[in-house]
């Protein structure tokens, strides 16, 4: 027991020959980072859960809601992520994540005191800046604890935080907002992150670079940032992989920002009912899909001795998810909508860990955080930045058309969103095309 306690004492990076960890500690690291990512996504998801009461209080449009959940967050999340990732390739990643966690948690709690749209917009910007310091350093940290043959699985555990956070955000947001109001919900999900940051600083160790591959002593300094970015972007594999991931995220973020609104408008759910149902559908479906996406990718690539299976998994799962998503948003039958939504989420969440693992096949150990940040720059700008905003704009456009056809404002608002969501999901086919293009060149462009 004393050995484990010593092992969990935070310290400066040790030399490769001095750094020793048990398998139990590796698991502790990846599952702790999963919890951090849960908080990351609780603080991100809570806004989508509470859109309807916020819209009613501030009299916002769907376009404004899309800007809050998309552009306000994504522009700073993606751009600030690049310099933070560069710092993570050079310095202590544990410290970077802990400080970032403090920032985004405080900004989430501060949202409870917003008085208008501008206040909401500014809070979301600060949340985006804080959360930019989470995933690239965490991906890099995990890659130094887990060797390549287990890396997609480890990254899938971390990535499950998206749906663990979505589960808590939907459940807590819906129930707490129903009982105590949306402002209390923001406080409850923001404040615990402050304590988590302290625990992280006290218990996580910074491993030597390249430790999981046995070559940490040969990895000294990262190449210049622009050299890494130019080299990576010059690879056809990365260009297609990042666009594929971005288009996938475009669908995921575009529709998930309006899950609650869709169930409330088209199926008559209350805020609490929508939150509870979606917590289990999105939470369980997303956790399962994310985990099995990573494990399947690892197992298939090892079984066939072919790293292209890392990208085949998201390509195939995209096309399975598409028809279920279309039915989920077009049907008027509530039970069918919920079942199809669950199946869509199971298959539509298999892409992230294989995409990150595939990216890491293209770069060296001192370039991984920056590679993650560049992948996330494209992924989140297309997905998070454009997805919700364009979905909201398309919803408003359809609404105006239906009003011109004689529908009531309430019915046109519901139908406009339903048609917008059904239209957006077909971008999955475009994403699949780019995954297959990335597979063509992956093996010849791998880092050696």
Please outline what is shown here.
By secondary structure, the protein is mainly alpha-helical. It is 80% helix and 0% strand. Keywords: Membrane, Transmembrane, Transmembrane helix, Transport.
How would you describe the overall organization of this protein?
The chain crosses the membrane at residues 25-42, 63-84, 96-114, 155-174, 180-199, 241-262, 274-297, 309-329, 335-353, 374-394, 417-436. It is found in: Membrane. The protein has 448 residues and is mainly alpha-helical. It has one domain (21-207, 224-445): Growth Hormone, Chain: A. It is 80% helix and 0% strand. Helix 6 (93-110) runs antiparallel to helix 8 (135-145). The radius of gyration is 21 Å and the shape is globular. The chain starts with a helix and ends with a helix. The model is unreliable at 1-12 (pLDDT under 50).
Features:
transmembrane transporter activity, mainly alpha, single chain, transmembrane, 0% strand, Growth Hormone, Chain: A, transport, 448 residues, MFS family permease
């Amino acid at each position: 027991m004393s050995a484990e306690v010593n092992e969990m004492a935070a310290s400066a990076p040790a030399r490769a020959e001095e750094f020793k960890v048990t398998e139990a500690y590796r698991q502790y690291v990846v599952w702790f980072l999963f919890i951090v990512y849960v908080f990351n996504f609780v603080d991100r998801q809570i806004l989508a859960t509470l859109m309807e009461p916020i819209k009613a209080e501030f009299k916002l449009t769907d376009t404004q809601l899309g800007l809050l959940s998309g552009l306000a967050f994504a522009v700073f999340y993606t751009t600030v992520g690049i310099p933070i990732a560069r710092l993570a390739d050079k310095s202590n990643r544990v410290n970077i994540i802990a400080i970032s966690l403090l920032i985004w948690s405080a900004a989430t709690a501060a949202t409870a005191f917003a008085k208008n749209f501008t206040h909401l917009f500014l809070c979301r910007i600060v949340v985006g800046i804080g959360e930019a310091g989470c995933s690239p350093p965490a991906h890099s940290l995990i890659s130094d604890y887990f060797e390549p043959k287990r890396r997609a699985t480890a990254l899938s555990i971390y990535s499950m935080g998206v749906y663990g956070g979505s589960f808590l955000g939907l459940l807590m947001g819906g129930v707490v907002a129903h009982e105590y109001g949306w402002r209390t919900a923001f406080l409850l999900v923001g404040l615990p992150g402050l304590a988590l940051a302290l625990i992280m600083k006290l218990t996580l160790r910074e491993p030597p670079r390249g430790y999981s591959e046995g070559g940490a002593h040969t990895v000294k300094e990262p190449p210049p940032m622009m050299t890494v970015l130019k080299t990576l972007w010059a690879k056809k594999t990365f260009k297609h992989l990042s666009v594929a991931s971005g288009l996938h995220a475009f669908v995921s973020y575009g529709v998930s920002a309006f899950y609650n609104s869709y169930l409330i408008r088209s199926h008559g759910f209350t805020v609490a009912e929508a939150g509870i149902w979606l917590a289990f559908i999105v939470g369980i479906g997303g956790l399962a899909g994310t985990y099995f996406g990573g494990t399947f990718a690892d197992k298939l690539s090892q079984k066939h001795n072919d790293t292209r299976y890392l990208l085949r998994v998201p390509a195939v799962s995209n096309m399975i998810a598409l028809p279920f998503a279309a039915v989920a948003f077009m049907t008027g039958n509530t039970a069918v909508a919920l079942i199809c939504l669950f199946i869509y989420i199971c298959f539509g969440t298999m892409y992230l860990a294989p995409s990150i693992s595939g990216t890491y096949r293209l770069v060296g150990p001192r370039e991984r955080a920056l590679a993650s940040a560049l992948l996330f720059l494209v992924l989140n700008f297309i997905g998070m930045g454009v997805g919700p905003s364009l979905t909201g704009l398309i919803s408003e456009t359809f609404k105006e058309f239906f009003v011109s056809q004689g529908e009531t404002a309430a019915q046109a608002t519901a139908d406009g969103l339903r048609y917008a969501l059904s239209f957006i999901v077909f971008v999955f086919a475009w994403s699949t095309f780019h995954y297959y293009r990335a597979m063509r060149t992956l093996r010849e462009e791998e880092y050696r």
